[in-house]
Amino acid sequence: MNKRILIVYYSYTQQTRLLLKRYIDGLEEGGVAVSVERLEPIDPYEIPFRSTFRLLLAMVQTFFRHRDPVQPLADHCFGDWQWVILAGPTWSYQPSGPILALFDSDDRRVFRGQRVQPLISCRSYWRFHSWSLRRLLQGCGAAEVAPPLVFCHPIAEPWRFIGLLLQLRGKMVRREKSWFRRYYPAYGHSRAQLDEAYRHGRALADSLQGTD
Ligand SMILES: Cc1cc2nc3c(=O)[nH]c(=O)nc-3n(C[C@H](O)[C@H](O)[C@H](O)COP(=O)(O)O)c2cc1C
């Protein structure tokens, strides 16, 4: 395997992580060597939020681009890659706090001269997040920023908004027969989206075959 891809990601409720798992399957089955680096916040948000006030506070803080400082990246991240994948959730229309903190740190040099593919997991609003990431990546010298791979929660509003709030508060309705579950069977991405992530990984791997 001489094709190498680095994935730098943050995931709070594990949706980005689940998408990446299948994306990586696609890459690896296409013959690519994948290195994965998870951003570890030094003082992470609690999960679930202990009160509605604390959840609302987090939403306001993140709207104002609150940073969550992260542990330094491992040394092996600083190399030459065919692509660097930068993956994470949207928080209050913005990139998440740990990703913003990465751009504040010296470790942002991991993107310098690299081709970067953003991957976004969100309930529904990703455009400002994407625009903001592009600017941050260009600002630290990325050679190319690909259009983002975007995965929105597949259920209609208002259920996906209510479902997100219940999930973040640890109050998801568990009874399968409840009327709510008819409209909102589960939090997060669907199996079809995980399969889509796999296909994206495989397509990227295939596109690298025969390149230097
Ligand atoms: C504090 C907070 C704010 C959020 N704000 C938004 C938002 O503005 N737009 C949106 O589409 N999703 C928003 N979400 C939902 C997440 O983007 C979504 O649940 C995503 O799938 C989570 O990915 P993760 O499990 O990898 O963290 C927010 C989630 C949290 C925790």
Could you provide a short overview of the structure?
The protein is α/β, with parallel strands linked by helices.
Characterise this structure.
It contains seven helices and seven strands; from the N terminus they run βαβαββαβαββααα. It folds into two domains: 172 residues, Rossmann fold (3-Layer(aba) Sandwich); 34 residues, no CATH class. The radius of gyration is 18 Å and the shape is globular. With 212 residues, the protein is an alpha/beta fold. Helix 1 runs parallel beside helix 7. Helix 1 links the parallel strand 1 and strand 2. Helices cover 38% and strands 18% of the residues. Strands 1, 2, 3, 4, 5, 6 and 7 form a seven-stranded mixed beta sheet that branches. The site of flavin mononucleotide (FMN) has 22 residues, from helix 1, helix 2, strand 3, strand 5 and helix 5.
Mean of residue pLDDT? Answer: 96
Instruction: Please name the fourth-level CATH homologous superfamily of the largest domain.
Output: Flavodoxin domain
Number of domains: 2
Shape, please?
A: globular
Oligomer: single chain
**Category from helices, strands and their pairing:** alpha/beta
Strand content: 15-25%
Distance between the termini: 12 Å
Put simply, the count of helices is: 7
Taking all Cα atoms into account, the compactness measure Rg is 18 Å
CATH architecture classification of the largest domain: 3-Layer(aba) Sandwich
Supply the CATH class of the largest domain: Alpha Beta
Total number of β-strand segments?
A: 7
Instruction: Give the proportion of residues in helices.
Output: 25-40%
Q: Main beta sheet, described?
A: 7 strands, mixed
According to CATH, what is the topology of the largest domain? Rossmann fold
**Uncertain regions spanning at least 5 consecutive residues:** none
Provide the list of bound ligands, each named once.
flavin mononucleotide
